[in-house]
Predict the structure of Glycosyltransferase involved in cell wall biosynthesis.
Amino acid sequence: MSKRKIRYSINPKATKKHANDPYASSRGELVSIQGKIHHGSDGLISSLKHQISLLDKKNFRLENKNALLSVENNNLKEQLNYYKKAYQEADRENKVLAVKELKAQDKVQSYANSMSFRLGYAIIFAFKEKGGVKHLLKTIATLIHEKRNKKIRQKLVFNHAADAAASQMSLLQWNQRKLIFQWLDNKLFGKEFLPSSQAQALPLDRKGIDFAIPVHGISQVLLSIDVSSQSPAPKQALVSFTFEDKENKILESGIDYPFSQSLNRHYAYLNTEESKVDQILLALPHDCETVNINVQTWDNQEAAIKLNAPIGIEKLSAGVSVVIPTYQGLQTIGKCIESLLHQTLSPLLYELLVVINGPQDGTKKLLEKIKRKNPEVNMRIFVLEEAGVSKARNLAIREAQYNYITFIDDDDFVSEDYLASLYAQANYHSLVLTGVDDVTNHGETIPTAITQQLAKAEDKAVIQYNDVSSSLTMNACKLVPAHMVKATTYLPELRSGEDVVYWSDLISRFQPNIALVHDLSKAVYKRVLSDNSVSRQKESFDFNVKQRLDVILHLISLLEKAQVSYTANFIQSKINAQAGFIKRYLDTYPQEYPAFQQLIEQNKVDNAFIRDINAKFSKILVISYCYAPYIDTSGVVMSKRVREMNQPVDIIYNSMDKVRLQDKNLLKISAPFVGKMIELKASQTFSNWKGIQQFAEQTFIEMGKILSRRPLYEKIYSRAMWPASHFAAALIKAKYPTIKWGAEFSDPLLLDVTGNIRYEALELAWLRMHHLLPENSTQANDNLFYWCEMLPYLYADELIFTNQNQLDYMLSYADEEMREAIASKAVIMPQPTLPRDFYQQSSAQLKKEKDYFYIGYFGSFYPNRGFQPFLDAWEMLPDEIQSKLRLIVYTQQQPEAVLENVSENIKEKIIIYPYVEYFDFLKLCDDFDALLVMDAITKKLKINNPYLPSKISDYLGSKTKIMALIEENSPTSKISDNKIIFSNLEDKNDILKNILYLYYDNNIQ
């Protein structure tokens, strides 16, 4: 076959016709070939036509497929938007329902406490129950009295704690609504301020104040706005904003800011509380030239709103600010900077902020030399004369000009893809993490557990904080949005661990998402191991205990402010990690434990980690059926006893959730000294034998578990008023007779306040089975209360009574053959009084009117308490003084029960409130002009008065004078304290004299 020349050329018409066709070039060539063949073969032409046909069909199929994909993509976008809106709507509806539920609960409670409900209830049962009519009449009288004095009642007591809680609640609700682009702070910051001439607060109205901010070449703007209201409430003020290009066209940001149809602008509500400053991140659209903002009132309901200071503005460019603090870093910083000069990220997208702190060692000259040789890299050098890595970082953070920040130590270095890999995953609401390699002094690279942990987390759709806990609170190996970093401050007062506090604060405040670099092997932080590193210091009490406690104190402060359990758990994990240093040190140096406990006490540290440490050193087991946090006088007194012991103890107690409320603050009383706290789930009872037996046996079993992991305790200590405590302790003493047992009686148990015998049956067989009663004993007394006293008499090594009268009285009815043994083991220990700082922990406050004299009474009004002589004395006062007295009663009883038989003249001057929490009670004790306490009346009922009012020990710690209405030779009468003014309980003239004395003494002061 002869060779033929084939000329190849492109048909210009075909090229033009298919200019937008991806296969136009191919078809154009084929057409040209077809037209230019001078000696073509029919077979070749046919083949070429077939090829053209196939290409056309393929092109058609691709065009159809592309169209289908486009339609499918649009459908998916629509579905995504639909589900997004549905989710937002459901979320809004859920919040509305939650608010409605709270309002409904409040309404139900309001109805239950309303006068109409109480009156209706009394009418319904007036003829259904015995004494119902009498109760109805009392209720009517009480309601008339309450209505008459409603204004006085509302004015009288102002609880700062409750007010703060209400304020905090509204703040939390506001915080829950805000997105991550907005947060609260207590400081105003910015590098520019608008209006720059503002010298005083500007009043705001609905029209608002407009500002235009030029933002050419800027990626983000941080606004700092301080507005306040006379009566702060949600939605009183807002800032609205728009983004414009150079042609004044409106642009949309990548952040889905709330949008107002009425304003036709995006907006954010502003917090109007004093000292609360709104910080708002504006992420600018591409080509944005101007941001227009307006600050105005909204739903202010005529409350005066003002702009307190110029609006702070900080502009951030797109890129990464690298923060490098250096101290005496001449020998190491060169390699660090060298690694940053050769990054694959464009030099236009990052800056190096080097802060030299402390004495000069030539580092500055070296850096300036490097800067001259590498003018393409943006390096800024700062000098702090005072040494301090936290101050150095804070300075660099303030100066950072890019919208993301990363930290590198001067003796470390990074791989060449480090910045580019981090920046590729950057997002305004995420921390981007990468791996760490350790580098030895010999240049050997060692993989770290940090990188291994990140590698395990790579495949997770959502990375949780505990998935990457190793790297979250270290400064290295992460890229962070600048607005988060700038809102958080390193604490210079911390000598170590400042990074743990800083990152815990940032994470708690913003709750950022977690992202990882695409390839952990390319973006690597090289951590050079050094003998003088802070994290590799030698063990010492200062570093391992004192400095760790300093860090823990700040973490506890963050924990108390944590808004969600997710971040609270994270912060607690960091507290536990710091506590690990302390535990390991004290394991090695147990003789240092007293110094540790002294620090705990001095700093008022209250956290679960203390219990783990205390448990290692506890030698006493306390058995207290009722204990904090349950609200009960017996539990509070036992907490004070533990504090008085001044050494670590473990505690076994019972759940009281069915019969007592809780107050977590009660745990603070004994917190520095408590190790294990074991809550049992026995039946909750005062005198039912089955429940008491259950608690005793569960305690016995728990003791066995404890002793499988530790040595035998030196002592057990039990306290009753709740009888179960002594039965459990007796069981343990029988099993472990070498343990010393101290048994305390709060009051006589066998005989009640009227002198009658209490009786509940127990099983004598149980006592025999546990060797508490000899097998051949003929004892027939099966009274539970008898044995609650007898078992300690028989087996305890020490018997604790709160006063001598109590001991004498209990001896008077004890078995005669036991009296000498009881007396030989008896110890008198009055109920403890807490240190003064406990009286200042609450912000509760008694709001008093001028020229009035306020007497406080806390507790129940039992029939045998001598209240009437005091009221009689009050009525005998001159009118001008009588009208100036106010008696404030805090009690669990109903007002009508308390005010029964009180004259109308006095009734209107008595204000009744429910019990307050314990620390509120202590604080209020300081606020009264006098505190009233009354002995129980035991005359003609007992040989003496064995009862010491439980409140007296708390009153004695206050600053207030105490008016004590006493029986002759009662325990109260024998207290020697200048604050107590004694009056004969039955002598109204004596009471009158002392009321006048206290009244005039108060007025003179």
Remarks:
- Residues 1-40, 149-178 have pLDDT under 50 and may be disordered.
- The chain has four domains: 180-309, 318-537, 618-828, 846-1004.
- The first strand starts at residue 157 and ends at 159.
